[in-house]
Amino acid sequence: MTLRRTVLVVLIAACVRSVAAQPADQPVPAPAPVEVPAVPAPVQPPAPVIVTPPPQPLVEVEPEPDADAEPEKQGFKVRRNFAGSIQLDYMAIPTEKTGRQIALDGATAEASLKVAIDFNGRISANVKMCVACHGVEVGMAYFDLRVADELNFRVGRFTPAFGEFPVRHDPANHRTSDKPLPYDMGRMLRINDYNEGVLPSPWVDNGIELNGTHFFGDSLQLDYAAYAIGGPRAGADPVDFDFKMSRSGESYYVDNNSRPVLGGQIVASIVTPKLTWSAGVSMMRGTYDPEHKLRFSIIGAHMVLRAKDVFLRLEYLTRRTKMSLGEDPMERFKYGPGANGEFDPYMVKDGGYAELEIPITSRLTVLAREDALRRRGNVVKNSGLRSDSVILRHTAGVAVGLWSALRLKVSYEYYDFSDFENESVIHLGVVGPF
Q1: How many beta carbons lie within 10 A of that of residue 108, not counting itself?
Q2: For 22, how many CA atoms within 13 A lie in the half-sphere containing its CB?
Q3: Do residues 164 and 313 lie in contact, with contact meaning Cβ atoms separated by under 8 Å?
Q4: Residue 217 in contact with residue 237, Cβ under 8 Å?
Q5: Nearest Cα residue to 258 out of 296, 297, 208, 293
Q6: What is the rounded average pLDDT of the residues 346-356?
Q7: What are phi and psi of 168, to 5 degrees?
Q8: Is the dihedral of CA 192, 193, 195, 199 positive or negative?
Q9: How many whole angstroms from its chain centre is CA 261?
Q10: Cα dihedral across residues 32, 37, 38, 42: positive or negative
Q11: Do residues 425 and 417 make contact, with C-beta atoms less than 8 angstroms apart?
Q12: Which one of 233, 301, 389, 404 counts the least CB within 10 Å of its CB?
């Protein structure tokens, strides 16, 4: 026990001497760390990296349209447009004491009121009422169902595609008070003798039409139309169309022979910044009598050339119509049978016009037109026509802008008849769209 104490005292004394021997500012060394065996930590999956997108502007997301919902609720606003035109024309025949004996002279008002509705990008409707010498008429009432530029379905009451002039038949769309002879309706001289023109315009009928346009590059386009309509009408044993039946509401606007009339048109156009040119051909054929035995066919061709605001228009129409010979052709017709001993049941009515329209100023436009109408074939005994009768008409006119879209029309027409005395006609009209 004494030995242990002695050894302990010696060790303590040695430690005291070692500490005392070191400088005062020398730090005391820390004891050496004790190595502890490492315990492996559990493996953790990497934390997901969260990327915060930059702030975006608020966008209103519209719900998908409901096919059964109303157009306004689908996000498409129905567009409606109302338009119309009015023309008052006074027709004077200075070469006749009483012009009413050969024409519908005096003052005639033509008014049209049109409503167009776009339900969406593919369905639209047009309704038009017009008033003229024939009274109140439904000029159009149809739907357009557009599948593509090349395919559109038109169903209802409309003017079928035929020729160039019917496209601009509204008085506000052409510069003369009267229409070209092949399309004349009600204003030509000797209207009862010739039974109007080849196809009076506007020709309005019930049916369906397929039409469309295809573009070849930036300059060339091709338009087409094919349709089935009720067609011209007439009573029993006719020798020509009865245009009053075709336009009269007393006939209920229905087909008189349960047979549709077929037709169509093709038009090619070249459009450039300085020049526009178009040319087309048209056709219509079918029967017009109640027994659907008397056939007719109409063929037309037209060309329009536009250089800036100068227009040159050329058009030709021909109609071949089968007449009813009746029970006794010798008593009915003026001319007897041909060399073969038989009566020719066909008559041909054709005509054309050439029209030049030149603007002199922004308010003054001058126009010159040459047109003709011819009828060939047998005629009834009380007719004033021969078997080959012709009308030549020479027209000069001006259109003067009065105020806004209001326009004054003045024209002079000289009729050169093959079977009657020549006549002069003066037109004075005022027209304006709205």
Answers
A1: 17
A2: 10
A3: yes
A4: no
A5: 293
A6: 98
A7: -120, 35
A8: negative
A9: 21
A10: negative
A11: no
A12: 404
10 Å CB burial of residue 326 (0-12, 13-18, 19+) is: middle
Coil vs helix vs strand at 243: helix
Say how far apart CA 319 and CA 375 lie, in whole Å.
10
What is the residue-averaged pLDDT of the chain?
86
Q: Which superfamily does CATH assign the domain made up of 77-433 to?
A: Porin (2.40.160.10)
CA distance 352 to 371: 6
40 CB burial (10 A radius; 0-12, 13-18, 19+):
exposed
Give the Cα separation of 381 and 333 in Å (integer). 5
**DSSP alpha helices (H): ranges in 216-316?**
243-247
DSSP code per residue over 350-376: EEEEEEEEEESSSSEEEEEEEEEEEEE
Handedness of CA 393, 135, 84, 263 (dihedral sign): negative
Please report the pLDDT score of residue 51 as a whole number: 38
What is the C-alpha separation between 65 and 72, in angstroms, rounded?
10
Torsion of CA 320, 325, 330, 336, to 10 degrees: 20
Could you report the per-residue pLDDT of 353-369, keeping only the tens digit for each?
Answer: 999 999 999 999 999 99
Both structure tokens of 188: 């030509």
Chain segment 71-100, per-residue pLDDT in tens: 444 556 889 999 999 999 999 999 999 999
- Give residue 136's pLDDT: 82
Name the pairing type of β-strands 261-271 and 79-92.
Answer: unpaired
Dmax of the chain from CA atoms?
A: 178
Tell me what the mean pLDDT of segment 220-231 comes to: 97
Distances in whole angstroms, Cα of residue 421 to Cα of each of 296, 384, 415, 418: 31, 12, 9, 8
Contact between residue 383 and residue 334 where contact means Cβ atoms under 8 Å apart? yes
**pLDDT tens digits for range 15-60:** 434 434 444 444 444 444 444 444 444 444 444 433 334 444 433 3
| Residues facing residue 90 across a β-bridge | 107, 428
